[in-house]
Amino acid sequence: MNDNLLIERAKSNRRMAYAPYSEYLVGVALLAESGKAYDGANMENCIHRCTHAERVAIDQAVFHGERRFSVIAVVTDSPEPAFPCGQCLQDLTEFDDGKGNLKIIAANLEGVVRESLLKELLPVRFGPANLGVDNSQTG
Q: Is 110 marked active-site?
């Protein structure tokens, strides 16, 4: 799946967000190394707890046996495209290639697109390798 299709999928997923309190809708499309894409949208509740869209997509992918991700597209309605927060970057670290080469695409509804690699956004990561774990083979 090319980057433009991933962005369009994330844009569509944004419409599934449940954010009645912040009204900040986020859509995500996460591409696993297997070639399958997984969807996510943020979910809020009245006690101001939020499950981020990235986490929704990660959980779905892992549930379906995926252990390596190559690209994630995040779409918001911000004037500048918004990259994942620190917690979501840490969550993505669990399933990158171990070197931080997961590509992160941030886009907005105006068509502005920014790209970065996980290692650029979170340069000093703590991940499975720090504990001597190769999670690509775990079930």
A: no
